[in-house]
Amino acid sequence: MNYTATYERIRSKVGIVELTNETGQWAGSFLVDYAHRSDLYELAYNRASAESAIKGGDLVRFSKIEAPVPSVHPFAAMAAECPHRREIALERRPCNGLNVEIGQAADRCTQRPPSDWLAGGVIRWIGSGGSLLVFGACRAAGCPLKKE
Questions:
Q1: Residue 11 burial class via C-beta count within 10 angstroms: exposed 0-12, middle 13-18, buried 19 and up
Q2: Residues of the chain with pLDDT > 90: what percent?
Q3: Phi/psi at 109 (nearest 5 deg)?
Q4: Which has more pLDDT, 140 or 3?
């Protein structure tokens, strides 16, 4: 039986291969993970060929799908690791009726306290259970840790 394989890169060093037989039925899939991106295509081809041989057939076609790779803004990558960024859970406002809330509060930066606070106020405020909503929003413009 003849097999067709389709390869798609899903991350920089990880790809997925789908194997179908000559009637178009799914015959299996597997992830391919490798340290060097240039060798990932070759590894995927070799694995697809081996899987076809295990199933008693030949690999007659190997296709590569070029999916767009989402770009990550440099600030988003830095903000995800920032120790001063705090996520705020969506809090419902107290009411005695139907309360439909749409939206999410912006993440907050503990390096952006209110301007009238004294030094050390951040630790005391958070330690006493104060709301994170008093801090400034975490954003690229004006980030105290952002390197120009």
A1: exposed
A2: 0
A3: -115, 120
A4: 3
